[in-house]
Amino acid sequence: MKHMTRRPRWKRTCLAALAALILPCVVLAQEATEKKDTQPEVKLPTDFNLRDIMTPAGRRGPLAPELIGEKEKMFASLERLTSEGDNGEAYFGPRGGRIIFQATMPGEEHDQIYVMNRDAEGIYMVSTGKGRATCSYFFPNGQRFIYASTHLREETPPKPAGGEYEWEFDEAFDLYIANFRGETIERLTDTPGYDAECTVSPSGETILWTSARDGDLEIYKMDMEERVPVRITNAKGYDGGAFFSPDETRIVYRASRTENYKNLEIYICDADGTNHRRITDNGAVNFAPYFHPSGERIIFSSNMDDPKNFELYMMKTDGTELMRITHSPGFDGFPHFSLDGRFLLFCSNRADPESGDTHIFVAEFRPYW
Ligand SMILES: [Ca+2]
Ligand SMILES: [Ca+2]
Ligand SMILES: [Ca+2]
Fold it and tell me: Which of 56-65, 129-138, 349-358 has the lowest mean pLDDT?
């Protein structure tokens, strides 16, 4: 990727982990975050109507068969849902009719959170428009979402020149719940330091996220009624990017344990934070793990076959039966299945690998195991 003029956002995400791990003091020397919440002004679309974004799940986006790689036999079809901006971390809504994602739109400097219909129509911003926003995820009632944002900090520093990515572990990130009118409903974290990488359990009763509250980056869970953070990981080094299994008995995540922090491996544990097992061991950058709806396999992104080209892979939950899903130039990552497993949402820069812009795709998934 050295020839690229601009680094794609996936590199921000991947290298973010490495950068902060190389610079551990980034997350240790935290300043207290401003605790007094303020509600920034939100600009809603002039024709805003909640019904407009409740697309029936049967609607599809523009098909892009020319972007299916020759060896991508598990893709029965491919839709391209975005055509501008630099997009990432897209996740289906509970009934598959909407998608929430983060994007740096043309002319903007930082990521904000957007929703769109399943058919790629009706994109609009649902975060505050201030600071940086990341890691959005629907609650299963479809009326609210969780995300991480720095909007309470008075000024957002510009992106560092020279491609340094420690900002991704920005200490000003905290978790918020908001609705699709762009209104912040609740601030969930207020301890000093990074809180982000949040996901919601299938039942909506529990969230997972990554926090620096205890001095090292660890995964925590919190019951949405009890509101008591429970620490899931207890190992030196970065732990993050966690998702529950469909039955909420297990958690899959990524972590770095190496001294030089040059790789990320996939781990799995029980939902109470016991029985941690590493299920990849290839020395590459493995991240964005997500359970197939069967609960028996995990899809993830890795550069195990080519340090410059991330692809999607699947494996059983014990790490066996590894199979490669994508074969395309450039980045493929952030996989997310629809509840029935029929569709695979992912982010890729296959449309224009040289530009570095990442776009959102949906494949009709045809597993052959
Ligand atoms: Ca915090
Ligand atoms: Ca840790
Ligand atoms: Ca690829």
Answer: 56-65
